[in-house]
Amino acid sequence: MNFSVKTYIYAAFTLLLASCGKLDLNPLSQGSSETWNSTPEEIEMSLNGLYKADFWMMDQDEWTDDWIYRDGLTPITNATLDGRTQFVSDWWKNTYKCIARANNIVASVDRAANLLSQEQRDRYVAEARFVRASQYARLLTHYRNIIYTETMMDIDEAMVAEQADPTMVLQKIYEDYDFAADKLKISYGASEPKRATAGAALALKARIALYMGDWETAKNAAKACMDLDVYRLHADFSELFLSKTKNSIETVFGFPRSIVLNVTKGDCQNYVPRNAGGWGAKAPSWDLFCAFLCTDGLPIDESPLFDPRMPFRNRDPRCAKTIVEFQTPHLGYIYQPHPDTLTVLNVTNGTRVENRDTRSVAQYASFNGLLWKKGIDEDWLKNSWQVEPDQIIIRYADVLLMYAEAKIELGELDDSVTEAINLVRARGYGVDLGDTQAYPAVQLSTQDQMRRIVRTERRMEFALEGIRYMDIIRWQLAEKVLNRINYGMLDVDDLRAKVINTGLWFFPQVPLIDEDGTADFSAMYSAGQIKQIAVRKFDATRQYIWPIPTNEVLTSGLKQNPNY
Questions:
Q1: Which positions fall inside the RagB/SusD domain (predicted)?
Q2: By C-alpha distance, which of 440, 459, 445, 447 is closest to 398?
Q3: H or E segment at 519?
Q4: What CA–CA distance (Å, rounded) separates 176 from 94?
Q5: Quick check: helix, strand or coil at residue 21?
Q6: Which of 161, 436, 482, 545 yields a CA-CA distance of 20 to 30 A from 80?
Q7: Is the pLDDT of residue 147 over 90?
Q8: Are 174 and 217 in contact (CB under 8 A)?
Q9: Residues 6+ positions from 481 with CB-CB distance below 8 Å
């Protein structure tokens, strides 16, 4: 079986980008709506239009406790989210635009019946229903009380449409995914356009079921995806996220990016160290850094292997693959935020240069000393900061951990649970599943302990992938972790006087880690050894779901979500 051709649209990508302006049909004009989708080519173009980047925006890590952007906060992390927040309106608008296009395809594909077999028509409809399900899943998880329609609505109908029962919407999403899983291909041939697959439908069905607490459905859908035997974990965790890695065997559903076609990942300089020409502004939080286990499988406050002066030593390898380790090469320079390291080695030419990644030299170097490493390589320094890593919507590691989590929540603790978790963990260590002497293999334990293990595994595995936000929402942890302080290093003079001159670095003390994997830095703060950077806030009375956009409430009579 050809594993490189599962869920992509490479062959249709150029057509998509060239035609998406023409296909902005929401709704189609009256004349076109009566005739469009009468040929296979027109249907293909309409399907291409469902894959615009605006329709597949991911949740942002900056909405979570994994993140620090100097002293900045977001509408979510400062509890100012309301119906006028820009991304709240944009997500709503773009998602319904995509749904309208999908509904039009479903309704009109039979216009080409004389040119298509029933199998071809079913596959086109299945792809449109797959996209529709994915869009409704995003609406349901974020806004909850939404309008549901499977038909093209005129203005009068839209103005009187009522919000649907969330339980009904979830069942409709399941029905669309089930149809797609039954009718879509498992994989595509090398010469075929690469589109959504049965595995993508099963994986995303598992995700929405998990998010909605439907453990049985999540378990069964994830297992069905696993049983297809199409996907594997990418051999090297670090390489998976690089621009050079295209259409990985681990990607269940995702999209290519292309510098040539001007579809790229943006905002690169904020992630790049200052020595390499970036700004070093957007960084992992200390909360995330402390969540990575030690190599004995224990949290840092329990493991005798953890040394707060050398905090990367003896940690799960994904720690240093996600966050730049001190005194190691990164993008051509040795990275070291220590204020007494005024010069560093340029590893490209062997010279020493001013160390602009320490705040003793550059005031706006990383406020907490950390920088992101995951997916960031020398390609980021080329092409005017335009990079083209694949946009991964869901990958096989998520399928495995969703299966494990659903089984844990159902109380079905068996070897398949530990195997799923250990497959992900062993790959993080770069070893085989059976080489249990080379990594801290998980053993079956109590339901509470297994729940803690799988949640920690998800955090270590999916940092900087837009997964953490919905995890803390569905686990009802946002009110805890987003009502905490983002800490960082003291200003340089105080850092030298209160930490370095006493023989300490990087953490003056070992922070305590609670049952939810949350680090407590209060002792260090009380001792004056660290600095408060920003105070996160989360309003649990309303923020677990987003507001309905204000303009929709005012013009369409929709009911606003509680407490907005």
A1: 268-564
A2: 459
A3: strand 519-520
A4: 20
A5: coil
A6: 161
A7: yes
A8: yes
A9: 64, 65, 287, 472, 516, 518
